[in-house]
# Entry
Amino acid sequence: MTRFTAGPRAIRRWGVGILAIALGAASLTACSGQQGTSTLDTKAKVQLEVWSGQTDAAEKILESLAKEFEKDHPNVTINMSPGASSTDQLLQKLSAGFAGNQYPDISYAFGSWAGQLEASGRTLDISEQVKKSDVKWNEFTAAARGTAQPTGKKVIGFPAVVDNIGLLYNKTLFDKAGLAYPTNDWTWDDFRAAAKKLTDPANHIYGYGYSVSGSEETTWQFWPHLWQNGGSIISKDQKKAEFASTAGDDALSFLRSMAVDDKSVYLDQTDEKFGQLFVSNRIGMITSGPWELSDLKTGGTKYGVVQLPGTNGDHQTVSGPDIWALFDHKDANRSYWSYQFAEWLTSSAQDARFNVAIGNLPLRTSENSSDAVAKQTAQYPGYDVFVKNSDNVKQARPTSKGYAALSVAIGKAISAVLQGQGEPKASLEKAAQTADAQLSK
# Structure
């Protein structure tokens, strides 16, 4: 998912960083620059470089929070900047920085980059610090914690942004079709039946919209189907694709039945049109996240939100957590204050003023009943459903450096099958072979 985070309502941010850059090579070279102190002095003057990956309002909020932290800690100066002209470019810039020994203390990073960043050998390991009770590490979702711990060996940062997808339904089209609105108990069979009844070819109205661009949007929408059927994306050692299973076949066959047999799915080649058509009462249901709510309000769309339909009572959803990655400069003071700032920034008090204030979901479960969440819900109905839906985030997307290639391979397979080109089982097996070749490198 590729969202540039001026908040999730701007552009979806689930990019997978497909750049073939030599992060791993940087780890083979010791830091060539001057090293700092090995003895901690919490009163010594320290300058931290922080790349936020944000623009506009979100960047201004972070700069304000940094100034507040500096006021409380006069010996610390935080140089906050976006870091690059877009979030997607941060990975390439980090790679170049590793090679030249010019990289920040903290950087926003898409979660899918986490494995590559750890492999660079430049990240801090904060595993011991986050075990402290006052950090309340377990308030973050399992997916967010897992993303910050890509190989399971080190914790390389704090969660920065979390999200999930639910089922948005268009009340105008449901009323027109005489259908009862979806509920949290819906199965995928209920969903399919409703999509078929909502579809009106003569008037170019579809029951459901799905991306067939082959991007991470295509892939991301598929993972809940796979997980709910008991499948997995990749092996535990992250060296072999596992989606070409019975569970994968069942999941893709279901979607194919809707797209090819029922013809109830608008197949979006762009990743953008299905949301727009939902707003304009041309699509009855989409599976998407809280970033859609602003457009729905602006468009005056009558809508509702529930958790995803389930399989045997399993309503798992997918999340694309991003992180604040912390980097090691062999300086005890910089490491200490990098950790302190990241922990402070992701605390419930600050998160309410950053993530929740700009429409992202709260990072911590302790925020779910906060005034900030209530305020967002009042402004954007359905926001609270996505907050609650975090309970259905059970698994994290892989963070290995081979995930980008895996995502491309299965994304192409899904797109082809939904357009009637190929059978689910064979297409998934071919995609798995392609993915395995990249994962083994």
In short: Confidence is low (pLDDT under 50) at residues 1-13, 18-33. The beta strands are 46-51, 76-81, 106-109, 157-161, 166-170, 206-211, 265-268, 283-288, 303-306, 322-326. The two ends are 24 Å apart (CA to CA).
